[in-house]
Amino acid sequence: MISWWKGAALALVAAAGLAAPRAALATDIELFFPVPVDGALARNMSGLIKEFNDSHPDIKATPVFTGSYDDTLLKTRAAIKAGKPPAAVIMSANFLTDLSIEREIAPMDDLIAKEGKTSEAFMGQFFPALLPNAVIDRKVYGVPFHNSTPLLYINADHFREAGLDPDTPPRNWAELYDAARKLTKREGDRTTRWGLMMPSNYDYGGWILEALTMSNGGQYYNRDYGGEVYYDTPTMLGALTFWSDLVHKAKVHPAGEQKGPAVTGAFLAGQASMMIISTGSLTFIRDTAKFPFKVAFVPMNVRQAVPIGGASLVQPTGLSPEKRAAGWTLIQWLTSAEKSGWWSRATGYFAPNKAAYDLAEMKAFLEKNPDAKIAVDQLANAQPWFATYRTVPVRKAIEDELQAVLSGKRQPKEALTAAQKAADALMRPYVEDTALRLPGAE
Amino acid sequence: MSAPSSGPVTREVTPSIARFVVAGLALVWAVPFWWMLVAAFRPAGSGADASLLPSLTPTLANFAEAWASADFPLYFLNSLVICAGILAVQLVTASLAGYVFARLEFPGRGFLFGLFLVQLMLVPVVLLVPNLKTIAALGLYDTLPGVMAPYCATAFGTFLMRQSFREVPRELEDAAMIDGAGWWARIRLIYLPLTKPALVAFSIVSVTSHWNEFLWPLMVINSPDRRPLTLGLASFTLSAEGMQAWGLIAAGTFLVSLPLLAAFLIFQRRFVNSFLASGIK
Amino acid sequence: MTHVLDTIPAAAPAGPPVARAARRPGAGLLLPLALLSPSLVFLALFTYWPVVEVLWDATHAVTRRGTRFVGLANFAALFADPTFQRALLNNALYALGTVVPSLVLALAFALALNGAGRVRAVMRAVFFLPVMIPLVAAAALFLFLFLPGIGLIDYHLARLGLPGANWLGDPDLALAAITVLTVWKNAGYYMLFILAGLQAIPDEAREAALLDGAGPWQRLRFVTLPGLRPTFAFVGVIALLNAVTQVDHVFVLTKGGPSDATKLLLFYIYEQAAERYDAGRAAAATVVTLGLLAVLTGLSLARGQGPEAAR
């Protein structure tokens, strides 16, 4: 299989090389970007890239909408294999480990050095919580573009109606459980309003479960080595059982898999009083909700902790020097304090560039929208995001089991055992090639 | 849609209660389309998305937004190029092969015909993984010809043309041969004009199936400016879902479905006959 | 319906006899081969070669340290994979759940709507319209229909005071929901063939039954259904093939989830190849799927429903 791809890649590279002198005026580059959460992100991105092209006559960047985070990974890999890598990709921050193991993305330290900066100084612009998912083996593989954490959203009207105080949203699991019970409304055997909803579809469910696990004191995965996940552990069992109890015992959370848009839709329609979803949806909720809402930190059990989410800009391997340089220019522009701040206000993601929060328009914005400030403040509790060899299938291994538990098909303990087994099998080739590759064993 | 006429006897096969049930099912069948129309023309934020009552103040805003947020004309053009390209090559390959199997006698004919029929079993879409490798090796990855290539030979088309060619009286070809007409002249001047209905039937079936195709283009195409309508719609739907913009999805779906739906409503009889010919002729 | 149309043999009653073709002056082998060569080139590239390739891939393992021959190990791993077992079962259920209701409904539609009249024509068109839209477009519509809580179905159930369901999110319902979409999409297509089949039943048979005083159900059972047998055999095979080859809606609606509930064979192959980079497993699954399809089409050919019969 590899040899076929390589042959095709070589042919295409050769063809591209022959064609290169023709296009001496402006370097054409592509930027792959996903739309992972709610809102008009695709439209915002077109506007942003137009602005870049207008201010950079020597580069012509084309934004390419590539679907969800998972789809974007597939499309990027397909493009690399076909020898037509995009010059920059907004890549889910937890895919960088896998991509670097497979040598599909290139470190950027040489480009940073050309700017006369050390890698440490360059990455120092960004919130420290983001670095473990961007700097791997002390090499810079990605520049944080937009980042998020899970966030608790509550419907203030529902809180008042249920005799709860919307100004003190639940802080721990006990309060969350209690509030959800009070907020749930039933007519006979039909639930007309759910106390709490959390997304459990592929891509989203694993992240939310990680947030609950970390709030329960867990690590979730080995952040220093891409071949281990801690699915079958007490911290994870507690987290999964809590979610399961919300569904099956308290019956305050609907059963089955819930997709992200369905959760948002239910919250906006007043059919769910609380939800835990990404900060990236904040602007969309603010613009769309027809009722007062508030946001708060994800409630804790053992400690206050959430994983980061969001995406970093990466550059695939195999780019021509011109395209790589042009892509780098685009990456620096997109991650500057001004643009980062603008994108943050347009979407709800926080701006990874710390300097964005020193700018006057950002200060005014946070003044006006205290909810956005809460999202940023939660960064103090942020942990790195689950990342391993073959991240997507390893994540789906737990998500399939999570969905089974939420549907009442599996007990949490047996689900975790099964997920651990599946994940170990998936990571086995890498483990055998690294941690279990011992001297004298050949 | 009009079916061929039938005697009054047939009617009595069904008791009237069954006909009421079928009429009820027809209403159920129409609901998704009805919702699509109602939602597509409903102004954003007016009433429940799920309401089936048309808005009193219909708007084209959803269409305008769908049009602006996805490059539907380009997707349309790509779909058109793919379908036309496949069909053009298929007509040549199928009529040549059809002629051979209908009228030429040579050793190994049965074997070769069997070899063609193998394609009926090895459905191209199931072979998408190895075919993708071949496409990449040929340098056709992420190109429209890459989408078309696996469909250029068609066992079904060959079979259909063979059947129709055999119904052409041999005497006509014999006369042309005496006049010194070569094989191409005979196919072009005698066989093809006399088998127009079969050609039209095959064309309609071929275009419809490739117009609606999704999985194979999804594998081959990566660049957005080469997406056919089906890929464009899937990507558009995903981004509109994030905006909870169901009216927008309805409008986009309507735009994408319109060309074939319109063609069908205008040329109903021809479509119906073609589909039937694809199966029972 | 899509590509299957390209690949389905005609359920033809026997065509004209072939014997006469023999008396043509043969042009030797050169002309036939020349005329067949365009087709043969494409068939070789995209039908025969992929089979070789898939067989090679299925018997080799590509690891981080190179490629080696592994015999049937990929098949052993495939059949031991619970996800694959689930995909096989799902596809069997999906085939059963789409084919039987589609054919029963198509028969009901055809019987009720056979004949002239405006109302009938409109209703036939209504049943047929879903056939004309891409499966992806149908999925885009059903995305909202199945949306829990605020979607079309749940909204109207709630207005009737009935509890809704999480149609695509409940592993017990998701496959059924996908099946409903498929039946909606395809029943009208099969109706068309049954309408044509009804035309082929001689009027005399029905008239004779009428004279014998047979009621509607008896006529259906003893005259109409036997007369439709060849049609059913043919349409049944199309429907079965569709159940394997059409998975576009799974991509839009469920991605094989929740908990593998809607994982069908073709989606499994796609996932193994595109997401897990397990070429061996994907190839082994392809071989198994091709085997199933070959048996299906082979059965239909053996029963004299295919082109062979028309030879």
From TrEMBL, chain A:
Q: Which residues form the signal peptide?
A: 1-26
Q: Which UniProt keywords apply?
A: Periplasm, Signal
Instruction: Report the subcellular localization.
Output: Periplasm
Taxonomically, the superkingdom here is: Bacteria
UniProt cross-references to Pfam families, sorted A to Z: SBP_bac_8
Gene Ontology, cellular component aspect: periplasmic space
The family assignment reads: Belongs to the bacterial solute-binding protein 1 family.
| The protein's name | ABC transporter substrate-binding protein
From TrEMBL, chain C:
Q: Which family does it belong to?
A: Belongs to the binding-protein-dependent transport system permease family.
Q: Which GO terms describe its cellular component?
A: plasma membrane
Q: Does the keyword Secreted apply?
A: no
Q: Which UniProt keywords apply?
A: Cell membrane, Membrane, Transmembrane, Transmembrane helix, Transport
Sequence ranges assigned to domain ABC transmembrane type-1 in this UniProt record: 88-300
Task: List the protein's name.
Answer: Sugar ABC transporter permease
Q: Where in the cell is it found?
A: Cell membrane
Any one of the GO BP annotations: transmembrane transport
